[in-house]
TrEMBL record:
It comes from Sphingobium naphthae. The chain crosses the membrane at residues 21-39, 66-87, 108-137, 143-166, 193-221, 233-258. Residues 5-260 form the DUF7847 domain. Keywords: Membrane, Transmembrane, Transmembrane helix. Pfam families: DUF7847. This is Glycerophosphoryl diester phosphodiesterase membrane domain-containing protein.
Length: 264
């Protein structure tokens, strides 16, 4: 098991991004920030409120075509992320070559996502069946068991997400198929869970704080110039831009951590 160093990955990422910013940021803005902003603008306010506080018994009706647009946006973001990993993992590669490689490997990433989603759905169905069985015996027992099973499901999904955090670099850097890519990504993070978890939590916290600050400040300026609608749009654009910058640093760092973890 190879050692990984977050500090070393950060130093290498800063150095690489400083040199290759002209390649990385346009790709991030076009294929990561822009699709996310478009989907955000298409999302109705009531659906945004539900995403913030999901309630099983109060799911709002999605507008026609919204689900398809959201899926398309996610696929484009995956495509852009793979291209960024290609640029980070193969110094000297052109943007065009990175995009072509990303397009060629995108079906593998989609296949891994479908397989993981299928496993999660099967797990959730199993939990629902267990809850139904306990409800036959006692409503109180069913409520307690439902809470325990729900908590266990969240913990397991979170654990799997951290263990597969190096999946994208595995997909773009190898010719492995769906199963082998998942197996490889899982093995690379063995023994590094807590370190990767801490790193991801810091990035999430930083992204939330900086993104919110940018949205508020730029939104206020937009509101002064163009009213409430201008404030919302300006805040959304600022948030998307900040997200793109943070994504570049995150993905390049993950690429460096992948190189460290896969070193023999």
């Amino acid at each position: 098991m190879a050692n990984i160093s977050i500090g070393k990955a950060w130093e290498e990422a800063v150095s690489f991004i400083t040199r290759e910013a002209a390649l990385l940021f346009p790709v991030a803005l076009l294929f990561v920030a822009l699709p996310g902003l478009i989907v955000q603008e298409m999302t109705p306010p009531e659906l945004q409120a539900w995403f913030a506080q999901p309630k099983v018994d109060a799911i709002p009706v999605m507008p026609p075509g919204f689900a398809l647009a959201m899926l398309l946006g996610i696929v484009i973001i995956w495509f852009g992320s793979l291209a960024l990993f290609a640029l980070a993992l193969r110094p000297g590669i052109s943007v065009g070559e990175a995009l072509r490689l990303s397009f060629a490997r995108l079906p593998v990433l989609i296949g891994t996502a479908l397989l993981v989603v299928a496993a999660i759905v099967a797990f959730v169905v199993l939990i629902a069946l267990l809850g139904a069985v306990f409800s036959l015996a006692s409503q109180q027992a069913a409520a307690v068991m439902g809470l325990l099973l729900g908590t266990a499901a969240v913990v397991i999904i979170f654990f799997v997400s951290v263990r597969l955090v190096l999946l994208n670099p595995v997909v773009i850097d190898t010719r492995a198929g769906v199963i082998e890519s998942l197996r490889r990504a899982w093995s690379l993070t063995r023994g590094h869970f807590w370190r990767l978890l801490g790193f991801l939590l810091i990035v999430m916290l930083l992204s939330t704080l900086v993104g919110t600050a940018a949205q508020v400040i730029v939104g206020l300026l937009g509101g002064l110039l163009a009213g409430p609608e201008g404030a919302r749009l300006a805040g959304g654009i600022a948030g998307a831009a900040v997200s793109a910058v943070i994504q570049v640093y995150l993905l390049v760092m993950l690429a460096r951590l992948y190189r460290q973890a896969s070193a023999d």
